[in-house]
Amino acid sequence: METVVTTVRAAVLGMIGSDVEVRTYDPPSAREGAVVVDVLHAGICGTDIHLQDGRLSVPLPVILGHEAVGFVRELGAGVDVDATGAPLSEGDLVVWASSIPCGHCYYCVALTEYSLCEHRRIYGINQSAHVWPQLSGGWAERIYLQPGTAIFRVPETVSGLDVIALGCAGPTIVHGLLGKAEPRTGESVVVQGAGPVGMAAAMYARLAGAGIVVLVGGPSSRIKVAEQLGVCDVAVDLDEYRTPDARLQAVLDAVPGRRGADLVVEATGHPSAVAEGIDMARRGGRYLVVGQYTDHGTTPINPHIVTRKQLEVHGSWAFSAEHYARYIATLPQLTERFDVARLVTEYPLGQVNQALADMRAGVSIKSVLSPAL
Ligand SMILES: [Zn+2]
Ligand SMILES: [Zn+2]
Hints:
This protein is α/β, with parallel strands linked by helices. It has 11 helices and 18 strands. The chain folds into 2 domains: 8-167 and 319-369, Quinone Oxidoreductase, Chain A, domain 1 (Alpha-Beta Complex); 169-315, NAD(P)-binding Rossmann-like Domain (Rossmann fold, 3-Layer(aba) Sandwich), CATH 3.40.50.
């Protein structure tokens, strides 16, 4: 027996620098081409903390949450399959790509590089809660998915917690690592950063057949979890290796011939990590800078080393539906090999500020809001 819901609770950022508030909204009904979803889990990402701090400009008030998973509540007219063509029904567990590209700009039309679209609509980031359909963020009991959203049914062997454990880090790494830096079988891969993006990079490097994966990061509690999950062959704990030189030596000791790594992935968000990462790559190696999602300023690097090493440097910005599709397709393999749900700490929607505080303090690796708790 289902009770009739008269209001929908959602966690709203009303002002930069202030706490998130739980407010109520009218339940939406799905218009043509849209889908209404009952949110099961919604992730808190490092970006949300930066949004709260005012590091990216967003329309306020905004219901945050650009990563979520939930059950289809209502399918609008004309929606009967997901983005892969699989049949879609009410009650199905689904996830969706967090942004809708405009389809009209140079990057959408001429280059088909949808993550570079100049006018992406992004759930939980640039959709004001004052504008219809209001429920455009994942930190809520329900979300309204507009026409054009790439929706995917969650594979049978994968749980809601499995999907949300890596959150946007999973598809971000599918784009940057598999799409741009392309780890090859047997290669040595160094990952800087032990947050969800770094963990995802290490896991996907292993799935791609890397010969050796070195994870450089901290704090020790995260490194311990990374080792228990088996995401890396060698962990270089920042609490133990306290200087860039100590970390460089540890990396050189771990890779064949002390030449440096074939591929280095930056997933820290700290500008100073970039100079360190350049030093860790071998001559002719590749460097993927994927962790600088918000602007933390400049950092000194020695560009001579980029030239001398013939270093191939890649940037990678967010992800599009294509990368999300590949992420969902690889999740059964990923979750069979790694117990990703262990990364998650769950909170009820009403404890959203505690969840944010724990993320800031590094108490949790991945904070997740579960509205039904
Ligand atoms: Zn994110
Ligand atoms: Zn566009």
